[in-house]
Every structure is written in structure tokens, then in C-alpha cells.
Amino acid sequence: MTSRRQLLKMGGGLAISFSFPLFMPRSISPAYAVTGSETEAPKSQDAGHISAWLSIARNGAVTLYAGKVELGTGVQTALAQLVAEELDISVASVTVTMGDTAIAVDQGGTFGSMTIKNSALPVRRACATARMFLVKQASNALAVPISQLSTRDGYVRVTSNPQRAVAYGDVIPPAWATLPVDKEATLKRASAFNVIGKPVQRIDLPEKVAGTHAYLQNLRLPGMVHARVIHPPLSGATLIDVDRNSVADLPGFIAVFVKHNFVAVVCEQEFQAVSASRTLVVKWTLPQDSIESSAIYDTMRAEQGETEELRQAGDASHAFDKASKRLSVTYRTPYQTHGSIGPSCGVADVRNDSAVVWSATQSSFGTRDAIAALINLPASQVRLVWVEGSGCYGHNGADDASAEAAVLSQAFKRPVRVQWMRHDEHGWDPKGPAMEIQVKGSIDATGRVDSWAYLVSTPTHISRPFGNAGNLLPGRMLGLSPKPIRYGGDDCARTLYHFTDERVAVRWLPDGALRPSAMRGLGAVANAFANESFLDELASLSSRDPVELRLAHLSDTRAIAVLREVRAISNWATRRANANRRGATVREGVGVALAQLEPGGAYVAMVCQASVDTHSGEIRVTRVFVAHDCGLIVNPDGLRNQIQGGVVQALSRSLKEEVHFDGKAMLSLDWTSYPILRFSELPSEITISLLNRPDQPPVGAGEPVALTVAPAISNAVFHATGVRLRKTPFTPAEFKTNY
């Protein structure tokens, strides 16, 4: 169990002062490879070769070249644990380099809770293969059969005489660069694990706590200049005029850059660029079809969408029509911004025939390819170096700021740093799109669900670059067309439950008023909110316990296990019975929710206890209970941290967060107009039960808990007050409208 006080202590709680470590990068030649002092073997990037994944230095230090990146989820530590386990070395002897397109394996982007799910097996295979080759080499060197050798602490040892040993660094095979990864390599059994499944302190935290960690925002290059991009007031606005003379006499001013709708100021120093961006006179014309955020759902219903059927069983419409107990409702979720605490940044050094871009992207290779297309260079001549930036858990402004820096560096033939401001991040990061879900269902005479009809209306939840320059914000401002992909809006529209008569469909809509893209959980957050809230409504309609109704329609044993576990750790029946629900101004309620992040993600069951002030409308979540099954657990401490963070973030999204805009400008541009959860509003208790399954592959743990928060709160509010909340966020105004 973690209390609010403990959570504050773990997070540092109070910062007295800051120091900002500026740093210079090491060699930036695109031809840079890991050679020489680190290992005498050449470096491959072919995932079929061991050297693409690993290098082993003469001193025994091991480097993993991961294509995935650290976003604050602890994957750097978890990946080091995988390496340490299979090579029988300490975590301290493993360095994990991440997201550098010149040396890393292209593993795709770091999103969708797929890093450990997709990395565990290939990393372990590469390490197990490397161990096998090292043992073979040691067998020759020691003249001892392989069957009489074992590995420990970076040495191959004679099992009967452990003092007789050779270090890994002394028996690296000469053909290391071309040694293939054996897909049939024998991996360690779970019963033999010494590192996997054990709590290991985060590799990245000491420097972050000490204030010495170098973020992208701290990067400085020789001869670097600073830029600010002046973004339009609203999506779809068109540039009319720029008064260059309005900033010509400012200190440190270098130039104004104007091309199509791309406007920027470039100055010698950071705050000179800030001043110039505020002083520059720019005129825009607004789009004629702009709408206000209050009209989102009316606009969505009027759109000509394209319907896709996701699941069909029996005849849900007929079953609904003939049912005596039936219900038809609509759920809504708004546009939301990522709200990265630190605005995005990008640094680029573009030469005539090559470029290096430093970025906090989630997808090094995809963003590299898109930027290469944007500046008209072959992707092979562009190197993207990932450097940690602001946390995002989705597609924030990192890719766009990096691409803007590349465009400006190419234009001015100098290294350029683009730092977004708070209004840029809130106003122009891609948004988690608004969604509307219509659900109809009915209950039969035995209290079971006998019909379920579900229709979600949504735009795509992805506009990541994926190699397409038009998907980048500067690409759009330069007149390039995005490449639309329908993705994510249907995630978790299909439930874990079995209904005899069921229809689930998605109605795909155009992009809408704001640029949509991935926010943590994508459409699964809204779909789980609708599904789990509606099932609770049917439980009330049938006068059944919400947990029992869920169990009655489940066959998935892992789903059943987490639901039963959260019922136990929350003391569900007693807590519900003891909740103060009548007579008082402030009433208590207890709600439940269950979800699995599809496809094949973690199972999560949650119980929330909430208090509702019926006069003010304020909702406070006081206690949270989570049962979590993500298969094999690599680092239980890291997993608990992710669950705690996921709960807090989803509480904020559920209770407070909504982007507002009118026909003239974005209105949610700071923390006052887009409030988030405060430390004082955290639950007093977050209790977590981890269901470890060593016989199952590990899957991502970052997103799944977010799916259960909104419905668990909504269901708790109903239990407390009898009020159904069907639109997030659950603000005081929203409650009072329905009370």
C-alpha cells in the first residue's frame, strides 16, 4: 500500500533549488560507430546479428544498443535486467544506449505499452546466444568441455573449480560482428532467475534526483543559435503578413524565417528569441469552418463517417427490442493535451549533405525518416540522436520541435535550437481526440445481459510521422499533406465479456477541429470508460452486484483472477456496505472496473472509493485498489511505480482535463486554463496487488491501469449519489448538471 505522504516522499516532494547542467555531445559524425576502446569488433545494425544488440568491452562492461527509449517508465532499467540475467552479470555492468539511429537496432517506436512485450524475447535471445558463443570460446581456451563450464559475474568458470575462469572480454569470438542470433537459444528458466523479477533501483533516477541529469533542453552546440516558431492562433489559419521591421532592431536578432505558414525568429541567445517572438507582428486569417469546443459532439454526429463492424453475434437489435429491462445511453470524452511539464525542444545541425538531429522523440527511426524527407536528404545521411526530454506518454510536440529545428538549421547553415513555450505545447501538441460512444443493452429474466450494441464515433488516434513529412507540424505549415492512418479509436471497444446477442462497431470520422494523435491508452481509455460504466448501469438495472455481474459473463481465467483479487484486497462487500451514502452533504461510494489493453496486453481490475460533495459538486478519490497481471514481472518496484503514476495521471484526466477553444483561438494554453491534479488531491491510499506469471511472456504495464480509472470513479459516484456521469472530466459543474 502506498499513501499520499509516501508518494510525495518518493517523488522528492519539495525542490529547494535547481541547477541546469548544460552539456556538449560527444562526436557527432554520422559515421560514428562503437569501435576501438569499447570493443575491437565492428558494429552491426542487423537485428539478426549479436553485435547489433550487444558489445562487450575488454573490461567486461556490456552495452545494449536499444532502439526503444526511456520516457520515465523505467524501461532502461528493465532492459538492463534482461541483459544481466541472460549473461550472468550485474545490472551495474550494463549500459543501455537508446534511440540513436547510427548505432541502435530499429525496434519501432516506444509506445503502446509494447517495449518489454516486444523487446524481452529478442534481447534475451541475443544475450543467450552471446553467452553460448563465449562459453564455446572459453572451452577452447581452458581445454575444458562445455558441459563442465558455467557463467557467473562476467566470467566463464570451471564448475568444479570456480577460481579457474576466463573473463568474457578475453574470449570474444573473432567473428563477433557477423555472429547470428540463434532463435532457438536456450533461455534461462524462471526458476533460475537471479535478476528478472527482482526489485532493482532505477538506473536513471540518481542523476535526476541530484539535478545533474542532462536533458535535451540542456544541450548546447558550438555556434548554435536559438529560434522560436510563431504558430498560428488556430488550426487551419493562414498567414497574411509578417512585419519583419517590428523586430529588426532587437538585440541579438539574426533573421525572420517565413515560408508558407511557417514563421520563426532566429537570435543569438535564448531570451532574445523569446523577446523577438513576442514582438514580431504577424497577421493570420482564420478558417471559415472553425468551431467552438462546445460544438464538438454536434459536429461529430453531423460528419459523414465510415462504419466498420468489429464484433457480431446473434441479433442485438432484436433482443433489445423485445426486452422489458433495457437501457440506451451516450458517453463522451473531450480533447485532451499531454500536458508535458517541460515544453518540447529540438536541436539540429544540418550540413549540405548530412544532418544530425537531437530529439526526445518516441520513434527515432520513423522521425528520422520524416525529417529527412522534410529537408530533402536521404535518410541514410540523417542521424537522429535520442536525448531524454519532457515526459509525454503519447505523441507530444517533441517530433515537431525537432523537425522545426532541422528546417531552420538547413536555412541558416548553423546549429539551431528550437524551444517551445508553454502556449506552444498546450496549443500545438497533437491532442487526444474527442470521442462519442452510444451503447444499448438489456437484461433478461435471470439477470444476465441478453443484448449489447456498441457504436464508437472517433477520428484516428495516430498522426505520428512514420516517415511522412506531412505528418509533422512544420510539414503541414510548409504545405505538405499528412498521410492519414485509421488507428486506435477502436481499441478496447470489444470487451472481455461474452454476450449472446452483441454488435460492436466503430464509425471513423475525419480528423476534426484539432490535430489528433496518440495519448496514453488511445481510444481504449474512452472505450473502457463507456463499456465498464454501462455494464455497471446494467448491474443496477438488474439489481445485481457489479462484480458478480462481471464474473457471470467472463471465461478468461486471468480476467477472473484480477477481478477476484481486487474484490479481496479492497474488502469490496464490506467497503460498499459501510460507505456513507445517505443524508450527509459529503457522500461516499465505491466503484469497480476491469479491462485488458488489447491486443494481448495486461489485465487490470480497479476499485475506487470516492467522496462527493453534493453542494459544491467536488469529487475526491480517496482510495484506489489495483490488481494487475502483466505476465512475467521484470522489476516489481518499477511496475508498482508505473501503476501509481498511471493512476495519478488518469485521475487528472478523469476529473479535470479538457481542451477548450473557440472560433478564433485555442483557449487552454496554460495550467490555469487547463488544470491538472494537484498533490493535495491525491488519494490517501493506493494499494496494488501484482499477479506474477513467470510462465507467461511479459507485456507492457504503463497504459492498462489508465483504462479503469474513469469508469471506477463514475461507478463510485453513482454508488454514492445515484448520479450517472457519462462525460469526462467529472468536474463540479458536470456533477451539478446531472444531480
TrEMBL record:
Example GO molecular function: oxidoreductase activity
Secretion signal, residue range per the UniProt entry: none
InterPro entries referenced in this protein's UniProt entry, alphabetically: Ald_Oxase/Xan_DH_a/b, AldOxase/xan_DH_MoCoBD1, AldOxase/xan_DH_MoCoBD2, AldOxase/xan_DH_Mopterin-bd_sf, N-heterocyclic_Hydroxylase, OxRdtase_Mopterin-bd_su_IorB, TAT_signal
Gene3D superfamilies: Aldehyde oxidase/xanthine dehydrogenase, a/b hammerhead, Aldehyde oxidase/xanthine dehydrogenase, molybdopterin binding domain
SMART domains reported in the protein's UniProt record: Ald_Xan_dh_C
Record domain Aldehyde oxidase/xanthine dehydrogenase a/b hammerhead: where: 210-287
Name recorded for this polypeptide: Aldehyde oxidase/xanthine dehydrogenase a/b hammerhead domain-containing protein
UniProt source species: Paraburkholderia acidicola
